[in-house]
Amino acid sequence: VSGKPVSGELVSGKPISGEFVSGKPVSGELVSGKPVSGELVSGKPVSGEPVYRLLEQVLQSLLEEGALDDGGEGGRVVDWKHPEELKKILDLSLDNEGTGDDAFLIQLCRQVIHFSVRTGHRHFLNQLYGGLDPYGLAGAWISEALNTNQYTYEVAPAFTLAEHEVIQKVLNLIGFHDGDGIFSPGGSVSNMYAIALAKYRLDPETKRKGLSHLPPLCMFTSEDSHYSILKAAHWLGIGTDNVTRVKTNLQGQMIPARLEEAIQECLADKKIPLFVNATAGTTVLGAFDPFEDIATICDKYNLWMHVDACWGGSLIFSKKYSSVLKGINRANSVSWNPHKMLGAPLQCSILLIKEMVSINNEPHKLPP
């Protein structure tokens, strides 16, 4: 932004040149583990006030502990300790009297950093997230420093516009040109929101009356899908017994014929088929369900089709692999977690809705 060059090192440890944010020249090495001279964004000297010294020391601890590195050749993913052993190392007791000792706080911060898992390490393979995006990290610092909610333009004008722009861009990538979306605390919540919308489209009176005036609702998901669908059925009062886990093939993909059989069984039991969850990238096998075939079945029975693309949705950016998402644009909703394959900071999840009219103006046809 400033148009002035920066010397030093970025997260990778390699020299860079370019522009920084403060509008003030910075000398020394940036995030390299060495002191930075110059001025902070506020224009106040870094060494001027206790709060700046504290923040500088916390950053220094992150750098010196290698929290921003990818592990290199010899770095460890974690310095593992048994819980009882770690309790003895970390002084986490909450006393009645506070402490004004910044040295104690910095030491505790350093210990927490040291004994935490390096999820940005090249050998961290335990979960479906990882990596460290320096631009996302910078954005997270700004977001936390400003400490605001994003529910109205009044309290978060810039953030509100940024959210709207990102959502519109992703909607277009998916093929939802008349849709809407919202960021949520995680993929489980995004999936739950989708089920709540399907329930509302079925009968808007469920908002006031709940489900007691309706026959039992039933939902369908593959046997290899994420547990959040069962969890949402519990939370929303549908019940886990009313979730059919549809058989998958050897590649872990939902079998469309088995889905249709399950829907017909639901109708025969005088239940209301509500929702089909297809998966773009299952947790264990990374399978992508046949979205076109599933969409055709959902159209036939007037069911809400949702795609849990929390992991695999990022392939929409790949020219080579985006074909595995063929048919995703036929869904009513899609959930996607940029914090997984794209490495955005946790938590970052988006629920995308194809058409608002499908919620407001198209009542579901209830079975006789």
TrEMBL record:
<dbReference type="GO" id="GO:0030170">
    <property type="term" value="F:pyridoxal phosphate binding"/>
</dbReference>
<dbReference type="InterPro" id="IPR002129">
    <property type="entry name" value="PyrdxlP-dep_de-COase"/>
</dbReference>
<protein>
    <submittedName>
        <fullName>Cysteine sulfinic acid decarboxylase</fullName>
    </submittedName>
</protein>
<dbReference type="GO" id="GO:0005737">
    <property type="term" value="C:cytoplasm"/>
</dbReference>
<feature type="modified residue" description="N6-(pyridoxal phosphate)lysine">
    <location>
        <position position="340"/>
    </location>
</feature>
<dbReference type="GO" id="GO:0016831">
    <property type="term" value="F:carboxy-lyase activity"/>
</dbReference>
<comment type="similarity">
    <text>Belongs to the group II decarboxylase family.</text>
</comment>
<dbReference type="InterPro" id="IPR015421">
    <property type="entry name" value="PyrdxlP-dep_Trfase_major"/>
</dbReference>
<keyword id="KW-0210">Decarboxylase</keyword>
<dbReference type="GO" id="GO:0019752">
    <property type="term" value="P:carboxylic acid metabolic process"/>
</dbReference>
<keyword id="KW-0456">Lyase</keyword>
<dbReference type="InterPro" id="IPR021115">
    <property type="entry name" value="Pyridoxal-P_BS"/>
</dbReference>
<dbReference type="InterPro" id="IPR015424">
    <property type="entry name" value="PyrdxlP-dep_Trfase"/>
</dbReference>
<dbReference type="Pfam" id="PF00282">
    <property type="entry name" value="Pyridoxal_deC"/>
</dbReference>
<keyword id="KW-0663">Pyridoxal phosphate</keyword>
